Amino acid sequence: MDAAFVGAVSARCAEVVREPLDDLPDLPGLADFLAPAQELTAGGKRGRARLCAAGWRAVGGAELAEPLIGAGCALELFQAAALVHDDVIDDAATRRGRPASHVRFAALVAGGAPDPARFGANAAILLGDLLLVLAQREMRRAADLVPDHRSAALRIWEVMTAEVAVGQYLDVRASTGELLEEPLETALDRSLTVIRHKSARYSVEHPLVLGAALAGGSPGLLASLSRVGEPLGEAFQLRDDDLGVFGDPAVTGKPAGDDLREGKRTPIVHLGLALAAPEDTAFLRARLGDPTLSAADVDRIRAILIGSGARERHESLIADRHRRATEAIAAAPLDTETRSALHALAGALTRRTA
Amino acid sequence: MDAAFVGAVSARCAEVVREPLDDLPDLPGLADFLAPAQELTAGGKRGRARLCAAGWRAVGGAELAEPLIGAGCALELFQAAALVHDDVIDDAATRRGRPASHVRFAALVAGGAPDPARFGANAAILLGDLLLVLAQREMRRAADLVPDHRSAALRIWEVMTAEVAVGQYLDVRASTGELLEEPLETALDRSLTVIRHKSARYSVEHPLVLGAALAGGSPGLLASLSRVGEPLGEAFQLRDDDLGVFGDPAVTGKPAGDDLREGKRTPIVHLGLALAAPEDTAFLRARLGDPTLSAADVDRIRAILIGSGARERHESLIADRHRRATEAIAAAPLDTETRSALHALAGALTRRTA
Q: Which residue, B145, B166, B192, sits at the end of a domain?
């Protein structure tokens, strides 16, 4: 059943990205522009689409309905837009083990252009814009299929898409400039706020609630699902942060230690700074955010995060949120099938390795 | 009357950009993120909003109606999004005589961050994303106010927003790499195609037709307005290209010769390459696209474009399109007031100095 849904979402994404402009002639160069988007939207775990389906089914929506497939596709296109811009922002070389979009664009003109990297970044900015526009269009069309629930669904979508941009800015801003000397609790609170707005709500809570809204869920049910999605989203992102430091590149598709080179001010980093021995804290302060960080540096940082107990404390943050999500699932007015689907998603989102 | 409409659009834009996220807490750092957007949306000629109003009124829409104000605001927010990303792509220092958004963001962290310019570009990518999302939301709300015309209006909006991203890509791609040896007509055709998709339709035709669709205009009337807007949009962009070379920075708010430093493959450049004497053509080929182009270089390029007759030919392209737009206004089923409003807009769009 889930495979059929994911297949339908993938097919819809492929269709949208193959011919994004119904009424435009086949412009020379358009195929080059779309190629990275086609690759990007063909893959991925479809986590947000699955969460949307879980929300939809929690209200009793049919398993393979058109509005759900459209919303799932919209979420995946929006995620692709975010990834394309993210990879420019982080100057990431790879995504899911393949060259990032801006790297692919740069390769297109290598040898001919004076500055291929700049062309690559510029083309990727525009591709992200296109994907964002296509995502909105898909969502609008999906919502039009359920006139009575259209407004409620679009409002969630609009909050989600605006919030990600704001949260991402807070993340980029926090990673720029000096690491403050401050109590651990202050730093943790701030970094958890950033996580919530840039990723946690968008990755879990909003897709789950969007699906339920689209199926006409009551305000009470939507609020119950928010209480499931909020801690689960935080757990998801904290797991992502752990994988950003400790993940296996062969599994994550991202180079090891990129978050450390970028100097991301994640909760695990703040835990490390607070709990490590003074000379280790000095090392972290000196090396985090250095784009030339070597594999040995990354190994030492990993050892510090483990040895200081920071990683263990971080795991307890994840476990705590997983527990809260589990309690919220138990408390929500859901049928047995939905409960077990949500429990399975909660496990998958917090225990994943990629 | 027009002043009242423009005032209402400006007030709406200010409101949206001041508090873009209704249900989010006042996050620290958010004010810094929004400041460049507030400045950007406070100014501008409101050309697209005015065209939308002309289309709306062509169908007999009331002068200061809510859907029109909302759509006007959506167009201005979308334009702001495009400008923020454009300025990153072109690495433009200024916009309307003030530092570009990415330059303002860079200044925010100057002294503290290892690479302020990179932070500036990254923050501007995210601000453009936020503005794009807010523009869509505004347009959706405006369209919701006219349920019977909602779909027709949103379809035009969706074509417009997707087409700009594609057209911009074609523009960036064309400016990268070698100048081909090819017949003038081939080069002109190609550069006019780029102009059409990246700017001409978006700057004139789509806003005009969007306004008419929102007011419930018939397919026949919409097609008539398209025939006005298409040549007028091309004339608008050709005038823009001329100003990019010959404009007074004190009036345009952009540094002189930036289009030449960027190596934009505009029709006027192709005319210059084809019509100039061999040593001048060689100079153009050697220097166009060089970011270090001096004021003397820019002066020489201007002299070449004038002396070769390229600028005059370019003016005749503009005049030809202005004439076609005038004929289309005469042929369209419009009342006298709308005709004279469109004639005034046609003059303003093609004879402007900024």
A: B145
